[in-house]
């Protein structure tokens, strides 16, 4: 089970990977969303704010009204942010739940695919 | 529970579900149903088909409440049986279902030729119109332009309102004598059920709305939306098919026309009636094509990302973030299907196959429901089909029967000439199912092995994990 601190560290790395990836920034340039991540086993919640493809804030707790809600176990969430897990696989297996439009679901998966293409 | 900024309303779930089922090909299928039974009593077969689809909608509703995800049907089968079965059946259902585009584009080309005439030759003009709509919809999807819920609602409800208005107007201004129809030798239980089998085609696609569960606050809304959509479709089609039948002349009914709705519109309101129906056809076909390309390209992308399809299909456009390889693949597949339909002229083969495919998937879904209740009796379900196993069992028996009935029948044209024996539909479906099974058993393990090899060469990034 990953702690809230583990997930915040993973999110910090994820933010750096995303914001430093020019290809991703270009592709997501018109994508501005508020995302909530919920760890199903610990109940921890996290908020990520994306503006024009740039992650501008990560914080513990659920803030604001989200466009996207992702629910996964704390371990899967941590692995996903470190790029050690293929979210599409888990999503198709029903282990990661996403509440969002189909376009947003695809955009979230695209982030992982672009920053860790070998996954 | 946290709420989403934008959530779908029930009216949008209903319009999406019903909108997927409403296409140009339903007019021709409706006339076929009317010609199988006595036209004035076609509503009985349509209501029977609608009632049966309603039972399936209830089964889908319970499964959506159990797995509220876009992975939908793959997940139900995977949890009920196993992953290989889920891949084989899921791909069989999706790809065979996509073949409807062949019939739909053929009929739409008839509408366009009727509208603008022939410029080069019938064959060339047909192919041009068939291809141009597919390319147009593919381009819209390639650019990532999406139809908003409000536009979807507006278009679908306008179509419903129009069909209901035309039906009620026709039935009020034409004589519909049920007496002779009830005593006709064509009004038999066998014919009513045969027509009901084809009637399933009128509802094809209502269940493709299950991925919308991710955009709703309450998963039960998807189930409710599907049930309302089926009810709305059943009532509208029942009225419209009878109205169209009585609104056509006997010669028109038996002329083998592919555009009965346009002839009906002209009979009713003159040239303007024809123009309105042409517009409705375009609207219905384009929204159906668009939903098809959107859903299939996203489904294909997710399958490629999960190493079930080759990785190339997961490529995204660098500017529009759309799965352009998948869209391109779908476009080529669709144009190939158009060419096949064009050269064989067997659009009824595809319509018959689609009806049988729906029956097949309803049987599969009912089996999944029974098995998942046994495997996970305590898993939370916000909706449960009432009366225990009765409804899924009835579904299995009835839809298996309908499917076998379709295969045992013979498809004829309006003049009664045999087009094909329907067992060829069964042969084509069985052949394709075999190919999909071989793909799931042979190709998918190789794709997954290659993915594992790639992953094993990569060091885990998470600190403290080897």
List unreliable stretches of 5+ residues of chain B: none
Question: Could you give the count of β-strands of chain B?
Answer: 2
Domains of chain B (count): 1
Q: Outline the biggest β-sheet of chain A.
A: 5 strands, mixed
- Count every helix of chain B, treating DSSP H or I runs of 4 or more residues as helices: 18
Summarize the structure.
Chain A has 119 residues and is α+β, with helices and mostly antiparallel strands.
Architecture blueprint of SSEs:
The complex is a heterodimer of chains A (119) and B (466).
Chain A: H1 4-19, H2 22-27, E1 33-39, E2 45-51, E3 54-60, E4 68-72, H3 74-82, H4 87-92, E5 97-99, H5 102-115
Parallel strand pairs in A: 1-4
Antiparallel strand pairs in A: 1-2, 2-3, 4-5
Chain B: H1 10-21, H2 25-36, H3 42-66, H4 72-80, H5 83-98, H6 100-116, H7 122-142, H8 149-173, H9 178-182, H10 189-199, H11 220-247, H12 250-253, H13 260-269, H14 271-305, H15 324-344, H16 347-375, H17 390-408, E1 410-412, E2 418-421, H18 423-456
Antiparallel strand pairs in B: 1-2
Helix pairs in contact in B: 1-8, 1-11, 2-3, 2-10, 2-11, 3-10, 3-11, 3-16, 3-17, 4-5, 4-16, 5-18, 6-7, 6-14, 6-15, 6-16, 7-14, 7-15, 8-11, 8-14, 10-17, 13-14, 14-15, 16-17
Characteristics of this structure?
heterodimer; A: 119 residues; alpha+beta; Nonspecific Lipid-transfer Protein, Chain A; five-stranded mixed beta sheet; 5 helices; 5 strands; globular; B: 466 residues; mainly alpha; Amino acid/polyamine transporter I; two-stranded antiparallel sheet; 18 helices
């Amino acid at each position: 089970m990953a702690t809230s601190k583990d997930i915040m560290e993973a999110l910090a790395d994820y933010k750096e990977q995303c914001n430093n990836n020019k290809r991703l920034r270009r592709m997501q340039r018109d994508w501005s969303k508020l995302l909530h991540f919920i760890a199903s086993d610990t109940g921890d919640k996290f908020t990520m704010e994306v503006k024009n493809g740039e992650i501008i804030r990560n914080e513990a707790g659920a803030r604001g009204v989200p466009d996207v809600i992702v629910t996964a176990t704390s371990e899967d969430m941590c692995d996903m942010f470190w790029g050690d897990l293929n979210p599409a696989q888990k999503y198709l297996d029903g282990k990661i739940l996403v509440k969002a439009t189909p376009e947003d679901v695809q955009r979230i998966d695209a982030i992982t695919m672009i920053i860790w293409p070998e996954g | 529970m946290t709420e989403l900024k934008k959530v779908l309303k029930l009216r949008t779930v209903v319009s999406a579900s019903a909108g997927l089922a409403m296409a140009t090909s339903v007019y021709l299928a409706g006339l076929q149903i009317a010609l199988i039974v006595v036209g004035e009593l076609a509503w009985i077969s349509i209501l029977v088909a609608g009632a049966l689809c309603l039972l399936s909608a209830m089964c889908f509703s319970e499964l959506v409440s159990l797995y509220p995800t876009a992975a939908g049907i793959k997940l139900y089968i995977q949890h009920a049986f196993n992953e290989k079965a889920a891949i084989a059946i899921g791909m069989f259902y999706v790809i065979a279902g996509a073949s409807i585009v062949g019939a739909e584009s053929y009929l739409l080309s008839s509408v366009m030729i009727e509208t603008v005439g022939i410029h080069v030759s019938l064959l060339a003009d047909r192919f041009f119109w068939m291809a141009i709509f597919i390319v147009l919809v593919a381009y819209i999807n390639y650019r990532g332009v999406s139809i908003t819920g409000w536009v979807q609602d507006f278009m679908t409800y306008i179509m419903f309102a129009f069909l209901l208005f035309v039906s009620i107007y026709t039935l009020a201004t034409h004589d519909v004598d049920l007496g002779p129809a009830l005593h006709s030798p064509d009004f038999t239980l066998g014919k009513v059920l045969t027509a009901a089998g084809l009637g399933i085609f009128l509802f094809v696609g209502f269940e493709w709305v299950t991925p919308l569960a991710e955009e709703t606050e309450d998963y039960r809304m998807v189930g409710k939306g599907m049930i309302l959509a089926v009810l709305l479709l059943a009532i509208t089609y029942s009225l419209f098919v009878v109205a169209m039948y009585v609104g056509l002349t006997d010669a028109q009914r038996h002329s083998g026309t592919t555009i009965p709705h346009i002839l009906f519109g002209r009979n009713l309101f003159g040239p303007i009636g024809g123009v309105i129906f042409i517009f409705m056809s375009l609207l219905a076909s384009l929204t159906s094509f668009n939903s098809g390309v959107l859903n299939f390209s996203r489904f294909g992308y997710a399958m490629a990302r999960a190493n079930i399809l080759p990785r190339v299909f997961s490529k995204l456009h660098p500017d529009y973030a759309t799965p352009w390889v998948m869209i391109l693949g779908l476009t080529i597949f669709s144009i190939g299907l158009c060419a096949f339909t064009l050269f064989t002229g067997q659009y009824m083969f595809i319509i018959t196959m689609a009806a049988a495919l729906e029956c097949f998937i309803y049987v599969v879904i009912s089996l999944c429901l029974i098995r998942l209740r046994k495997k996970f009796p305590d898993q939370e379900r916000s909706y449960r089909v009432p009366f225990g196993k009765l409804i899924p069992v009835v579904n299995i028996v009835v839809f298996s029967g309908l499917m076998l009935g379709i295969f045992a029948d013979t498809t004829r044209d309006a003049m009664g000439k045999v087009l094909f024996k329907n067992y060829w539909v069964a042969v084509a479906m069985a052949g394709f199912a075999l190919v999909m099974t071989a793909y799931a058993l042979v190709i998918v393990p190789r794709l997954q092995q290659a993915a594992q090899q790639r992953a094993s060469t990569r060091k885990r990034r998470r600190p403290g994990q080897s």
